[in-house]
Structures are given as C-alpha cells and as structure tokens.
Amino acid sequence: AFFALGWPLARLPVNLGRDASVQAATVRLGEALLPEGESYLAGLDLLWRRVQSPPELAWLDQVRLRALRRANATEIAAVREAIERRPPRLLIANARLQSLPWPLLASLGRRYQPLYGNLLGYAPLIESPGAALDWPLAGRFRVERASPGRVRIADREVGEREALTLQPGRLTIETEVPIRLVWEPQGLQALADPRFAAPAELFPNVYSY
Fold first, then answer.
1. So what's the pLDDT on residue 15?
2. Backbone phi, then psi, for 44, in 5-degree steps?
3. Are 174 and 129 in contact (CB under 8 A)?
C-alpha cells in the first residue's frame, strides 16, 4: 500500500528452519545492490564492506534502544534530522530496527518501501504541492502516485509510474497528489534469490549477541 507504515510494527514471520540461508541471501543481495561508498541501516553490522548511516542507529543493542525510548522530543528530532541529512539507500528489516520508538519508525516508513525480502529501498514520500529538495542519491527512481494527478519533476511532466534518472543536487517537484520516488536498483531480479522474496525473521534471539 502506498502509505503503508506497518512493516516495522508487525513481527516478521518466523523462519521455521532456523538456518542461515535467509541471512546469507539478504547479505549477498544487499552488498550486490548497494553501490560502493553508500550506506545502509540495520542496527547491527551485516554488510561488512559497507557502512551504516546514521551512526546514531548503527548499533541498536538493548542499552541503546532503552536510551532512545527515554529520549525527549528534541533528541528524537536530532536523530530524524540525521536520517534526512544522509539517508541510507537500503534498510535491512530485523528485530532491532523494529524495536525503535514509534516516531523513528514513522520517519523511516515515510522514506522507505519494501524492495525484496528483508530489504527496503529509499522511496521518500513527497506531499508538498511545490517542493525544492536537496536530493541525496543517484540512480533510477520510479514515480508512484497516491491517486491520479499531474506531476512535474525538474521542470518536465512525468508519466504514470515513469522512472527518472536522478543525481544528487537541487530537485524541483510540483505535484497535485502525494507521490513517492521509489529507487529501482539495476539487475534486482537477476541477483535476487526467489526463495527469499518474502520477509522473514533474520535472527532468532537477536539480543543474545
């Protein structure tokens, strides 16, 4: 669903096999899709050749999560601003991210959409009729509308579900309806393992290590 924010709230289905196949497939796909020098977010180190962003959420152990739950509105706003300043291209859904306090989950839900399995890709929700954004990421982004309506991006009309090649920098958007700009990674279907297309529990007993 276009406005779905529920992915962080519902527990992911349990992987009854309890083996490492889903974790290995998620790591392989994440590393293959994420360009060198760009970041992801998981709340624990999963992609060893990539960095997490923002650092405030890179290690979500019980101590850090308790601190975030006790944080005041100003402290939470600072974390949200850190996400906005340097958004990771990928999220890896797992119990640690799901345990974030609701204001941070809602903020992530406005910026990311399910991509494949446990991976979520950058897909910011834009609701302002006229916006000038500091666009952060290069790549192809598909325009998804909440309902029919006229959309202009970078001074040109954009068709239904049209994909644009964007570069970091100032980006002007005029829209009659809320839209998302959804990252379309190259080669996803060729790289992905269809056995792991649905999200699954990555780590049982995640706080035991």
1. 38
2. -160, 160
3. yes
What region, left, alpha or beta, does residue 206 occupy, with left being phi > 0 and alpha being psi -120 to 50 degrees?
alpha
> Is the CA virtual torsion 170, 172, 178, 180 positive or negative?
negative
Query: What pLDDT is stored for residue 130 in this prediction?
Result: 85
Length of the chain: 209
CB 200 within 8 Å of CB 12? yes
Task: For residues 11 and 94, give the distance between their C-alpha atoms in angstroms, rounded to a whole number.
Answer: 9
DSSP 119-178: EEEE--EE--SEEEEEE---EEEEEEESSS--EEETTEE--TT-EEEE-SEEEEEEESS-
What pTM was computed for the model? 0.89
Q: Is 24 helix (H, G, I), strand (E, B) or coil?
A: helix
Strands of the sheet with 39-41, listed across from one edge: 51-52, 39-41, 90-92, 119-122, 112-116
State the DSSP H helix or E strand holding residue 83, giving kind and residue range, or none if neither. helix 73-85
Geometric angle at alpha carbon 68, from 30 and 38, rounded to 5°: 25
Helix (H), strand (E) at residue 17: none
pLDDT along the chain (209 residues), means of 10: 42 48 94 95 95 97 97 98 96 95 96 97 93 94 95 95 96 96 96 94 62
pLDDT of residue 159: 94
Neighbouring C-alpha atoms within 13 Å toward the C-beta of 26:
26
C-alpha 49/C-alpha 20 separation (Å) is: 19
Q: Assess contact for 151 and 158: CB atoms under 8 A.
A: yes
